[in-house]
Amino acid sequence: MIPTKGYAAQDATSDLAPWSFERREVGPHDVQFDILYCGVCHSDLHQIRNDWFPGIFPMVPGHEIVGRVIKVGGHVKKFKVGDLAGTGCMVDSCRTCANCKDGLEQYCANGAVLTYNSLEKYTDGSPTYGGYSNTIVVNEDFVLHISDKLDLAATAPLLCAGITTYSPLRHWKVGKGHKLAVLGLGGLGHMAVKFGVAFGADVTVLSTSAKKEGDAKKLGAHHFVVTSDAGQVEKVKESFDFILDTVSAPHDFGFYLSLLKTNGTHICVGAPLEPAKISPFAIIGGRKSVAGSAIGGIPETQEMLDFCAEHNIVSDIELIDIKNISEAYERMEKGDVRYRFVIDIATL
């Protein structure tokens, strides 16, 4: 076993604190890489608090992981020692269902194995531990190649925030000739703006905060609408082909559906704790759709990373010391981050 240092929550009521544990030895098809940076996702906080479902404790969060390979198994063909590498939200899947065979491992019919707060159901049944740690061992099929052209710390959030917004935009073929509204300008929303602009769409940011207009324009957004301003809202009613909804707080879906054109699609990637309430009349009148999307499969995630390397796209980040993670969580809940915290694992 491999001695590992990390930060863990011992239960749903405790703060993250230093914790030593063990990783499995590197098997024939495994890659071990030392973690250099790990992004901080809002879902990390949800999971250590049992907001969504009962967690597996002790819990080491983190699924936006980048680092450098230090060891590979004897049958590994895709990586060598010294390569930059990354792992996102999954570390395994059944490999045999129709979704896995289509490169949609995130929708594995038998259940993907998450990077943390999950069980290694296809191997030994042990708990998985995430990237708030100094090293990790992952099957090579769930390790991504990271380009040395990009800032490594700012690349980490691409493994969740990046692919969560890239995947639906690609699936619905959003691009030139489309009017895209990005709802919410946070960790997910700022990546949605960057990708939407890169794909050629006309991008509008919808926000409750007028203070974010400057940031939205700097990120490349063509327009900005303060959703509490009735005059601004009236001008964009029935105008968007797509709304990419990144908001994780309860909000009025009917209000935003009124901004879609006929045949428009409202795509949910945020995860509010309360169920959405949608009147049938909000979608019947304009043959509108409400859809959802979760991260992306391994092939698409690699495609995204390659696209980002080609177009010099990374996240806007604030690098933090791991000892300040509780403060970072508090600021994240207040929206006080532009736009993703990333832990410098050297501070561990």
* CATH homologous superfamily (4th level) name of the largest domain: Medium-chain alcohol dehydrogenases, catalytic domain
What structural class is derived from the secondary structure elements? alpha/beta
CATH architecture of the largest domain: Alpha-Beta Complex
Task: Tell me what portion of residues adopts beta-strand conformation.
Answer: 25-35%
| Rg over C-alpha atoms, rounded to the nearest angstrom | 20 Å
Order of helices and strands: EEEHEEEHEEEHHEHEHEHEHEHEHEHE
> Helix count?
11
Assembly category: single chain
Q: What count of structural domains?
A: 2
Number of strands: 17
Runs in which pLDDT lies below 50 for 5 or more consecutive residues are: none
Q: How helix-rich are the residues, as a percent range?
A: 10-25%
Label the overall shape: globular
What's the helix and strand layout?
Blueprint: E1 2-8, E2 17-23, E3 30-39, H1 42-48, E4 65-72, E5 84-87, E6 90-92, H2 98-101, E7 113-114, E8 135-139, E9 144-145, H3 152-155, H4 161-171, E10 179-183, H5 187-198, E11 202-207, H6 213-219, E12 223-226, H7 230-235, E13 240-245, H8 253-257, E14 260-268, H9 280-284, E15 289-292, H10 298-311, E16 317-321, H11 325-333, E17 340-344
Parallel strand pairs: 10-11, 10-13, 11-12, 13-14, 14-15, 16-17
Antiparallel strand pairs: 1-2, 3-4, 3-8, 3-17, 4-5, 5-9, 6-7
